[in-house]
Design goal:
globular, five-stranded antiparallel sheet, alpha+beta, 5 helices, two-stranded antiparallel ribbon, 193 residues
């Protein structure tokens, strides 16, 4: 069964009120034939809903479906609990990860997880999960080694895309979000989503 990319307007992104969700990073090691370093597939879980990125765009599915079928064991890293407005999250992230814009080295699942974690928690994806593609991209950029030794073809849709620029945009959006009033003992305190 092929999944279709979800859009923020498909009516399944939750209500207008942010809800408190457990945020987890799912990472699965992948053996690579093109670099001597371990690569990773990653996705982000908000509650039990997985968000992942592929050439078909951003997918939203119950559980870590994008990791099924991979040979290695998936590790889940707890990133805490946050108030998340799923509609705001999708509106912020989905336009940066359109269908057909995936590039194995420059704009992949780890790029998406990096951006999603930054928006949700203010913390970037650990660089160790992007080491293989970073080294492979350098080899490709300076010597075209990826095209010589593999079937890699750069995706022109990712030519003008830069993860750091997107992170900057998402950080600004995140800081502009209004605090959510939360009732606690002794009163109400604002909590940033």
């Amino acid at each position: 069964m092929q999944r279709r990319p979800q859009t923020p307007t498909d009516g399944r992104s939750g209500g207008a009120q942010p809800a408190r969700h457990r945020i987890r990073l799912a990472v699965t090691p992948m053996k690579s034939t093109f670099v001597p370093f371990m690569g990773y597939h990653s996705s982000v879980l908000i509650g039990s809903m997985e968000y992942s990125f592929s050439n078909l765009g951003v997918f939203r599915a119950p559980g870590p479906i994008s990791h099924s079928g991979l040979e290695s064991e998936t590790t889940y890293i707890d990133c805490g609990r946050r108030f998340v407005d799923l509609a705001a999250f999708e509106k912020a992230l989905f336009p940066h990860f359109a269908p057909g814009s995936y590039d194995l080295l420059r704009k992949n699942c780890n790029s998406f997880s990096d951006c999603a974690l930054t928006f949700l928690t203010g913390v970037r994806l650990d660089a160790k999960y992007r080491q293989a593609e970073f080294i492979a991209e350098l080899a490709e950029r300076h010597m075209s080694l990826m095209r010589v030794f593999t079937r890699y073809e750069p995706n022109p849709e990712a030519d003008d895309w830069d993860v750091d620029d997107v992170i900057d945009d998402l950080s600004e959006l995140r800081s502009a979000l209004k605090p959510v009033p939360v009732v606690v003992r002794g009163g109400v305190r604002p909590v940033r989503v």
